[in-house]
Known about the structure:
It comes from Silurus meridionalis (Southern catfish). This is Protein FAM72A. By secondary structure, the protein is mostly beta strands. It has a single domain, classed as Metal Binding Protein, Guanine Nucleotide Exchange Factor, Chain A (Beta Complex). Helix content is about 5%, strand content about 30%. The protein has 2 helices and 8 strands, in the order αββββββαββ. The chain has helices spanning about 5, 90-95, and strands at about 10-15, 20-30, 40-45, 50-55, 65-70, 80-85, 100-105, 105-110. It has an 8-stranded antiparallel sheet with strand order 4-5-6-7-3-2-1-8, with no helix packed on it. Strand 5 and strand 6 (about 80-85) form a beta hairpin. It is globular, with a radius of gyration of 17 Å. The structure holds zinc ion (ZN) (2 copies). One zinc ion (ZN) binds near residues 16, 18 and 19.
Amino acid sequence: MSTSNFKNKCVAQVNCIYCDSLLCTRGMKAVLLADTEIELFSTDMPPNRTVDFVAGCYSTESCKCKLRDIACLKCGNVVGYHVVAPCKPCLLSCNNGHFWMFNSEAVSTINRLDASGVNLLLWGDLPELDGSEDESSDSLSEEEYLR
Ligand SMILES: [Zn+2]
Ligand SMILES: [Zn+2]
């Protein structure tokens, strides 16, 4: 399993096409394995305070993934879906850890530029999850060795 092709992909900013509010700054262009005519943008970071869940979980006919639609928090239009529980074949084939999808017909995207403002920002240039509020990682260093 190689992640190198994944790191060479452009980082896209994803905006709601209906109200133009910013949904996510870490979008990646993705193509559904089951249906290659549908264009999607995926992200590894749960969009924080920009989208909300609508309705309940459902599955598609192509596989057993549990999905849930997400809607723009500002205008209420459905912009994509979240993979709540991926099925085994999908988990094995989609190893980029992206479980948030935006439908390309519901969003507008802009490729982000790197710090120089000239080159496209690639996923390989990104730090691990910036702006994450996960505080579970700093508990490992607190071990004390008193003797
Ligand atoms: Zn919107
Ligand atoms: Zn699946």
